[in-house]
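Supplementary material to the annual report.
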Amino acid sequence: MPRHNASMVAVAAVPGSVAPAGRFLSVTHLHKAYTRTRGKAKEELKVLDDITWSADAREFVTILGPSGCGKSTLLNCIAGLTDYNSGSIVLDGNGIDGPGADRAVVFQHASLLPWRTVARNVSYGLELRRLYSKKEIAERVEKAISLVGLQGFEHHYPHEISGGMQQRTNLARALALETKLVLMDEPFGALDALTKETLQDELSRMIDRYDRATVFITHDIREAIYLGDKVLVMSARPGRIIREVVVPFPRPRSRDLTESVEFEELVSELRMLLHPTSAGSATADAAMSR
Amino acid sequence: MTTTSTTTPQTTLRRWPRRSQAQQRSVVKEVQLSRTERIVLGVAGLLLTMGLWQMLASTGQIDQVIYSSPWDVATSGKRLYEQGKLVPAFRSTGTLFLVSMAISIGVAIPLGMIIGWYSRVDALLDRFLSVFYAMPRIALIPLIIAYAGLGSKSRIIIVCISAIPPILINTAAGVSTIDRDHLRLARCYLATNVDLLRTVALPGAIPTVIAGIRQGVLFGLLGVVAAEYFVGTTGIGGLIFLSGQTLHNGEVLVGALSLGLAAIILTAGLRAIENRLDRWRT
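Predicted assembly:
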């Protein structure tokens, strides 16, 4: 893969090129298909087609693609929740073949346990690790809760807090584990526009302070650029990586960035990739950016 | 008073008659009663029924020997109490009920957990349990008497077979139903099977288990009366049986009403426990 330069010109990665060895996370020639039986005929449904990319230890990679392109499946493969047919996923030198202590997942739906308070939901992953004392867990939970701005809501039950706060809890639960890799599956997808922007801003600030790799799935072009160091654009099914874009904007980033001409140019460039037919039309604009 | 749209004239043949917004709202509007209003109406209903019953009995419209009357019930209750029959009967019935319920819960919840958790055990016992749950289990009383005789052992067994199935089946259903998102979460965070049971399946099953216990309590009360009727005529059930045979129908009603009262108190108590354990639900 060519070395990425930080110019406005997006650099394409040729699908099929071998990820350089020694990267923190590398996904190599990943294929996945489901077989469906219809009567006697077996139908093969390709979901992921020759996916190859890699990420550095502190990189924030966003994977952008239309609904149903297999991006969540890709994330599940990395999380170790789904099998794949061929290829490999190597994280920090270890092949992935199941859920592991080196990864944490932020789910699309908050998936909070309704009978646990916010604090006890955040501590859930830590408790299951069985490595930490009660005191250590409490300290880590407190830290994660203040990181996502949930102080004062520790003893609330999930049904007592808003959707945005539930997602913050979801985020804190993953961050409390302090893993080297965090996987986020469209965590802000179901939130209202205002809450979504607030959480994006806060996540962006967290990235600046935090020392870990993140894979973030989204179908929102602006979100992908605003948060990512690198955007992988996926095509509709079967999911292929059609472009790998290094985001040229320096961190820390602020909301003002999204108003800039350069940002808009990158947005329309990516929109063209996702929507080759309706590029530039105002309706597509509105549809894709929300 | 708001008028509902039932008075809308049906003059047009339009399929979807257009209504003004106000009319639409009046259709879905629920009548909201205040708490005091509900209580006042409830007491009024009770007094009205009793008054009518007493009036029909006093005027000889209905036969007091068969239908009794509120006054007759009250004096029967007083007489039974003064004769020292009521309190011991209550104590005996209460003991039978509590001992049997403790056994039932102690047996049904662990067994229900096993059935709900291990699908092979579930498959193995499913047919048998379905039949056992559906059948009127009181029909087994002759077998139980033959096995355990005419003592308290038989009575306890009768109450237990009444109360166990609903608790068992609800517990199993509660434990076996796990939210897909929660399963994914637990797997992601490296939960072992025991963790999954402990942190997801069991807490999630609590509402269903309590619903099962509440059902079990009502079935258990049925079992208590049946047991006391047929095995040794003891307690409130025995009292009802003997009074019925001597046509003291006021006394029969004293027994029946006190059991009804006990059922209401027990159900309310369980609901209070449920609310405490269930704070996490809306």
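Chain A touches chain B at residues 79, 81, 99-101, 104-105, 107, 109, 111, 113-116, 124-125, 127-129, 157-159 (CB under 8 Å).
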